[in-house]
Amino acid sequence: MGMFSEGVDVRCAPSGEPQELTWAGRRYTVCAAPVRWFERRQWWAEEQRAPLGSGPGLVDHEIWRVQVGRADTPDAGTLTLDLARHVGSGRWRLLRIHDALLPVREQDSA
To answer: How many structural domains is the chain composed of?
Structure first.
């Protein structure tokens, strides 16, 4: 699994679930029901103080695991990605690419 942090543009359904994303100039469509959970972040390493009343947005990251396919190449297979949405700004970041779920190239399987 590759882990990093890169900005992505995400379009959501009215319910708040990711529907489509643009990453590295390519458009992807969510093709399975996404899964959401929250993870703790080390806010004390990033902030000097926690502003009063900012606990839920400061402490937890909203994470979505999505399975996506290329909008312009439907037969290219799917990717499973973990996305994080910043509660305060609404910005999205790509956190993980689950390469165990990437399509196997023929030369790798030999």
So the answer is: 1
How would you write the pLDDT of the chain (110 residues) with one tens digit per residue? 456 678 999 999 999 999 999 998 999 999 999 999 987 766 666 666 666 655 555 556 789 999 999 888 877 788 999 999 987 778 899 999 986 544 555 444 44
Counting Cα atoms < 13 Å in the Cβ hemisphere of 3 gives 1
Question: Please, is 30 exposed, middle or buried when counting C-beta atoms within 10 Å of its C-beta (0-12, 13-18, 19+)?
Answer: buried
Q: Report the 10 Å Cβ neighbour count for 81.
A: 24
Domain that holds residue 54: 2-102
| Tokens 């030999």 belong to residue | 110
Element (H, E) at 45: helix 43-46
User: For residue 108, is it within any domain?
Assistant: no
**CA dihedral for 94, 21, 99, 32, sign (positive or negative):** positive
